[in-house]
Amino acid sequence: MMIGLASINLTANALSAGLGLLGVFIFTRLFAPHEYGVYLLGVGFASVVSTFLAGWFRNLILSEHARDNGADIRGVVLHGYLLCCLTAPAAYGLGRLVGLDAAPALAAVSLAIAVGLFELTQDLARARLRALTALKGTLARATSSLCLGVTVAFVAPEGSFLLSSAALACVVAVIVQWSTTWRGTKSKFETPIRSVALQGLPLTLSLTLLAISSVTDRFMIANLIGSADTGRYIAGLDLVRQTLMLPAMSAAAAFIPMAVQIHASRGRAAVRSHLAECVELLFGATLPACLGFAAISPHIANVVFGADFREVAAQTMPILAVAVVFQILTQQYLHSSFLLSGRNSFYLINIGAIIAANVALSYVFVSDYGPLGAAWARLCADAFGFFVALALSRRAFPVPMPIGRLTLTMIAGLLMASVVVATDRILHVSDFVACVVLVATGMTSYLALCWLLDICHARRRLRAAFAFSRQRFANIAARSARQWKRSIATGVRRHVEE
């Protein structure tokens, strides 16, 4: 079941990322670096505000709505979110304070409200394991965002208008999912909003700080060296995250709600066994993707970005790709320890440590090395955050960390990256062809290593898949034979009757 849900989530995110990649390809050619930098700064600010608006209800959805025990918490979530949106004027003032102009600040706040409602809608669908509903919403948002963004690029290529189009795309996606996710929401609810706020306060602060930590470097670059270089750096950063977070988000969207259900119904030992399998799958999907991306980053930069963005992206993306490994393991796995133990304050401690490290390192490195220094600061801060989260998880819910199995995965990933680098040296083709050849080479070599080293129990899973396929084909053949015999019998009967 987990593999099926993760596959649906991965499909949705992969299609969304493909459309997003097409958007980056277009936007970095039609927008000036300054305007695109304004847009990316607005998106970063909106991510912080939307996290604050929606974070109060994330824990409630994961812990209560995921149980599917008859309790309907959608009413309190919707009413509470509308109350949180009353802080929009303060958010606008904060946007002006951090350096956004009036129009981008207003558009960013609108985007934050729309993103918050979209994320809550997605959380409600995923908590009930409605992966297809979440897929529809993801694709609706990605498609609308691309179409509206391209329209803006030709009509009025300004960062504030691009932010507004992104907000409208989120509204379209919510409308698509509304009947499935929100219909039947009761206006009366048993859980007081005050108690929900008190329960969600630690997690909200932690998630907000996490969002702040993810945008600290971009605002520091904007203040130290200007919006144009910020746009160049963030373009590469966002491409790395959107591409490499896909397998992790898809897997986590499946295994975290399942972990909550298993913990509630079957106890501690069962959920630890479940998580041990999950972390191996998570690492087995994440590490090769990150290492492969780092190996072919120069080709990706030349294919995806406009001429003004390529140099900075080619320099920073390999570093940022490695940083994503630590970020994924921290956010998508170790943080589940805090959720299962109810130690929401540990989110706060962990994210606070990441922010402190990122601010200090960014201030030192960005001043001297510009965008490249920001990438190194991000890598060091994410690695530091991983080890802090690992230490905290020992005092919360001790999630398993199968070192032996993960070491095999690391060996396979490094060998795969070596094969890709060696192949790249002998290629003399265009960047696009090089990307296709190197990705195919990396996937083939990694799959072979998975079989050889039995990464993620690949042999057992492959045998099970073959057995399932064989049984499925046998059932189809038997059904076809029965239908054929039935049709012959019917034909004979009609002939006799005539």
Automatic annotation (TrEMBL):
It comes from the Bacteria. One of its GO terms (cellular component) is plasma membrane. Signal peptide: none annotated. The keyword Transmembrane helix applies. This is Membrane protein involved in the export of O-antigen and teichoic acid. Its main location: membrane. The chain crosses the membrane at residues 12-32, 38-61, 73-92, 98-118, 162-180, 201-221, 281-300, 312-334, 346-366, 372-392, 404-423, 429-453. Pfam families: Polysacc_synt_3 (PF13440). It is a multi-pass membrane protein. It comes from Bradyrhizobium erythrophlei. Keywords: Cell membrane, Membrane, Transmembrane, Transmembrane helix. The keyword Transmembrane helix applies. It is found in: Cell membrane. PANTHER family: INNER MEMBRANE PROTEIN YGHQ, PST FAMILY PREDICTED COLANIC ACID TRANSPORTER.
